[in-house]
Amino acid sequence: MSEPSVAKNMRRGRAPRKTTTSGPAPQAAETIDTTYLESLLGYNARRAALSVISVFLQRMAPFGLRPVDFSVLTLIAHNPGITSRQICSALDILPPNLVGLIKSLDQRGLIIRKPHPTDRRAQGLHLSAAGKKMQKSAQSTATLLEQDVASNLSAEELDTLKHLLRRVYDQHSGSNASLD
Question: What's CA 47's distance to the chain center, in Å?
Answer without folding.
Answer: 14
